């Protein structure tokens, strides 16, 4: 696996692949990779001739009081995982490579999409995500790009951006990967103490409760959200940021359970903010 730190190295390699008629998949990540990321790489390897992963903790998507400095990093471990999954190149730039001095151009969705859900407490987050993902798309020029459904709001906003700005890249959403006991895999799970790790199960329990209510015929989205909130509030270490039912594409609030409705939540467990969700399938 090639390790590239410069934009020019990525461009040269991708140009060579394209001259050979090969297709390219991109898996954008912030590193500290786990089984969820591995599943994205596997999907890309299965669908594309060559796979590029980026490992870059993107400063522009962190607010001033967020965990940019403490965000976990382990590039050697990341490389081992990527290589094992068949990734062909990892792009691991310095912040100065991505944000040269004088940088002042951002990509921003001006609808309510980035203001709802996580955007309520993370007002600049999705501007940073759209900006860095646009840059990665321009640098790698992939045919397809792979994103986890765990970040459902990010996925919806990236899809909107790709349509609005005619990127011509297919966005492939991949299912949430969970620990055996249900907790959605996340690099931030490492912040949890053993006691908090147990308490964090309340998120997946709320997801499973919502899915069960739908299987049993519940059509009222508010009733499901209320039951999920009630369950989460029983956990003393948990503090709800939001629990919401929205349209999976527009992120507008919905009342009725139907296909593609997204039930999403963010919950603080101690100081760690975790997210989880599910989408209604049929
Ligand atoms: O999902 C992530 O890890 C990040 O938001 C992304 C897409 C790599 C952009 O920095």
Give an overview of the whole structure.
This protein is an alpha/beta fold and 282 residues long. 37% of the residues lie in helices and 20% in strands. The chain is built from nine helices and nine strands. The protein has a six-stranded parallel sheet with strand order 1-4-3-2-5-6, with helices on both faces. It starts with a strand and ends with a strand. The mean pLDDT is 98. The site of pantoate has 10 residues, from strand 2 and helix 5.
Describe the secondary-structure layout.
Layout lengths: L1 E3 L2 H13 L4 E6 L5 H13 L2 E6 L19 H11 L3 E3 L3 H4 L26 H16 L3 E5 L3 H13 L5 E5 L19 H6 L1 H15 L5 H13 L4 E10 L13 E9 L2 E8 L3
Parallel strand pairs: 1-4, 2-3, 2-5, 3-4, 5-6
Antiparallel strand pairs: 7-8, 8-9
Helix pairs in contact: 5-6, 8-9
Keywords, separated by commas or semicolons:
six-stranded parallel β-sheet, alpha/beta, three-stranded antiparallel β-sheet, binds pantoate, 282 residues, 9 helices
Number of helices: 9
Q: What ligands can be seen in this structure?
A: pantoate
Report mean pLDDT, rounded to a whole number.
98
Q: Estimate the strand proportion.
A: 15-25%
Judging from the principal axes of the Cα atoms, what is the shape?
globular
Report the major sheet: 6 strands, parallel
Number of strands: 9
Sketch the topology as an H/E string, one letter per element: EHEHEHEHHEHEHHHEEE
Helix content: 25-40%
Report strand order across the widest sheet.
1-4-3-2-5-6
Q: Which oligomerization state do the chains in this entry correspond to?
A: single chain
């Amino acid at each position: 696996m090639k390790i590239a730190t410069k934009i020019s190295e990525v461009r040269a390699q991708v140009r060579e692949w394209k001259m050979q008629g090969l297709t390219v998949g991109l898996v954008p990540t912030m590193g500290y990779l786990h089984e969820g990321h591995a599943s994205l790489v596997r999907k890309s390897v299965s669908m594309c001739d060559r796979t590029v992963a980026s490992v870059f903790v993107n400063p522009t998507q962190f607010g001033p009081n967020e965990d940019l400095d403490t965000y976990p990093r382990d590039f050697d471990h990341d490389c081992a995982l990527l290589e094992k999954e068949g990734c062909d190149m990892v792009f691991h730039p310095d912040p100065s490579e991505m944000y040269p001095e004088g940088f002042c151009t951002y990509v921003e969705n001006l609808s309510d999409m980035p203001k709802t859900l996580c955007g309520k407490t993370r007002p600049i987050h999705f501007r940073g995500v759209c900006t860095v993902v646009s840059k990665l798309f321009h640098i790698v020029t992939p045919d397809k790009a792979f994103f986890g459904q765990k970040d459902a709001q990010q996925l919806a906003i990236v899809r909107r951006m790709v349509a609005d700005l005619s990127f011509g890249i297919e966005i492939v959403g991949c299912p949430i990967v969970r620990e055996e006991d249900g907790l959605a895999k996340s690099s931030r799970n490492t912040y949890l103490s053993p006691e908090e790790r147990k308490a964090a199960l309340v998120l997946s329990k709320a997801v499973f409760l919502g899915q069960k209510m739908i299987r049993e015929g519940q059509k009222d989205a508010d009733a499901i959200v209320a039951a999920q909130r009630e369950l989460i509030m029983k956990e003393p270490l948990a503090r709800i940021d939001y629990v919401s039912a929205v349209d999976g594409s527009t992120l507008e609030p919905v009342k009725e359970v139907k296909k593609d409705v997204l039930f999403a939540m963010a919950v603080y467990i101690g100081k760690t903010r975790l997210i989880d969700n599910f989408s209604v399938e049929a």
